[in-house]
Amino acid sequence: MLPLLLLLAKAPPDARAADIYLSYSADGTPLLTNSPTQNLDAASRGEVYDDLDVWWRDTVPGRYLPNGVPMPNLNRIANLDDYDSGFSNAGRQTGLPPELIKAVAVAESRMNPRAVSSAGARGLMQMIPSTAKQMGVSDTFDPWQSITGGSAYLAAQVKKFGSYELGLAAYNAGPGAVTRYGGIPPYAETETYVARVIGLYQLFRDTRPVSP
Fold this sequence. Notes:
The protein is mainly α and 212 residues long.
């Protein structure tokens, strides 16, 4: 487990300038936020708020995903392959590569089915309640429902916009933003998100395909 000083060093400069509070989720994940009540309440429920994106800065020195994105430390995800049967089933149902769906789950939640974002997105595939309801997901913390609903929503965006990249951009920023800009919106978060997911997808496809 990383010491507090190292975690704070990894936080962005603006975050380090504010008061930062540390707590731990039920699985030992370090939680950093400027809102101690939010994090402690979440930890008591086994949920993880990931506003500071700490994990993506925990990279493997000198290693990169196939598209040049710094390699995240996947060894820290103990359950990396636990939901492969769900990704495989979702791939058959949607026509998407199961490795792409898995890449979304890793990028969205680090494969934590109890993950919660500050925007209210929940679960393995980080669906907001309105989208989850639209996709027939009654329990966003159920990993199998999350995979089914999230992959169906992603498939709809890929079909609408014609590519994995644009579908992922719609998944992250909303289809309205992709339509408005006629492509990947010029948001740093969305551009980074698409690059990370595509890189993870290529890595899984080429080196550790999802088991049927």
